[in-house]
Write a structure and sequence with these properties.
The structure holds two protein chains of two kinds.
Chain A lengths: L3 E3 L1 H14 L7 E6 L4 E5 L8 H21 L7 E4 L4 E8 L3 E8 L4 H19 L4
Antiparallel strand pairs in A: 2-3, 2-6, 4-5, 5-6
Chain B lengths: L2 E3 L4 E9 L6 H11 L9 E4 L5 E14 L2 E9 L7 H7 L5 E7 L5 H17 L9 E6 L13 H9 L6 E3 L8 H20 L4
Classes of the chains: A alpha+beta, B alpha/beta.
Chain lengths: 133, 204
């Protein structure tokens, strides 16, 4: 796995895109993390209330664990995961092979909207980071 | 996989404590957590099974201060040592930048130490890594038991079992009492940060 080096302008572009597509849609926190569980970018008004370090580590591990499950049933990977809570839910999506997008949203935002926006955002972030699939 | 954030001037590295079950990996992290100030340490995350054994991993984020203007942030992970959790160990090794192999000095654990080191080598290979490409340090834990009637391994035996091919730094430790814990952490942090900096920052 190659190391990830991010520069200010790339990070800024990614944050603007996350803000435009997800935060404006009512999502309250978005984390962009790498596969090792490091936080690349965090956006949203509730990000400072969360233990984002633990969340990122668990999300990366969760993704790793489910991709092993995928292999056991003959799939390569599950590209997205969703956990529904009473008030807040979490949506995870893979971006390329190195990044994971975590979206946390309340019951006032529909899952369908999050899925559409995340699908669009993945393409944009792939371009910003120069990720080829 | 280190993360280097040039805008915030931060370097994030992942160090994994590896070793057989019950060798003291989590004890190392707990001692570090309890000894460090709130400013330097993050929240320790542990996922345990019923019998106090690590199920998935423990995580302790640390802030080691500045080197050449860069904030050094280290995340210490442990793996579950028991043989059945091999898939989990492989996952935790994803993106590792530095390794500490914690060996158990108890004589009855001699074979488990060797088995675990072989398992580490195999799992690194599956992550496209090898012992030559990644900083690795050995820690011979439970040295406080040498003076008790419990049968323990001599240092020479541990060296020939585990370090005859690696030829790496090895520290004696008694993690429950803190002996050797910070010496190990300092050495592996230094090696890991130097390794990452050589690859990315010094070349520029």
């Amino acid at each position: 796995m190659a190391d990830l080096v991010v520069t200010g302008p790339v990070l800024e572009k990614a944050k603007i895109q996350i803000d435009k597509s997800l935060i404006k849609a009512g999502v309250h926190t978005v984390l962009l993390i790498d596969e090792a569980g490091n936080i690349v970018a965090s956006c949203g008004k509730k990000r400072n209330d969360l233990d984002t370090t633990s969340l990122a580590a668990l999300a990366a591990a969760n993704f790793g664990a489910t991709s092993q499950m995928a292999k056991l049933i003959g799939e390569d990977d599950f590209s997205l995961l969703f956990h529904k809570g009473k008030k807040d839910s979490i949506h995870f999506a893979r971006i390329g092979s190195a990044l994971i997008l975590i979206t946390i949203f309340g019951d006032d935002v529909s899952l369908g909207l999050v899925r559409i926006r995340v699908a669009q955002l993945i393409k944009t972030i792939e371009q910003v980071f120069g990720i080829c699939n | 996989m280190a993360l280097i954030d040039l805008s915030k001037k931060e370097v994030h590295c992942k160090i994994v404590y590896y070793g057989p079950g019950r060798c003291g990996k989590t004890t190392n992290l707990l001692y570090i957590y309890n000894a460090m100030s709130d400013r330097a340490r993050g929240k320790m995350l542990t996922i345990e099974t019923k019998g106090d054994r690590t199920l998935f991993f423990d995580l302790l984020p640390l802030n080691l201060g500045k080197v050449n203007g860069f904030d050094i942030r280290i995340q210490l992970y442990t793996v579950p040592g028991q043989a059945i959790y091999e898939a989990t160990r492989k996952l935790v090794l994803k993106g590792v930048d530095g390794l500490v192999f914690v060996a158990d000095s108890l004589r009855v654990r001699q074979a488990k130490n060797i088995e675990s080191l072989e398992d580490l080598q195999k799992n690194l290979m599956e992550n496209n890594l090898s012992f030559n490409e990644i900083p690795l340090i050995l820690q011979y834990n439970k040295r406080d038991l040498v003076s008790t009637p419990i049968p323990t391994l001599e240092l020479d035996e541990l060296e020939s079992d585990l370090n005859s091919h690696l030829h790496t730094m090895a520290f004696e430790a008694a993690a429950t009492k803190g002996m050797g814990v910070f010496e190990t952490l300092k050495a592996i942090s230094k090696l890991t940060v130097r390794h990452v900096a050589r690859k990315h920052l010094m070349a520029k």
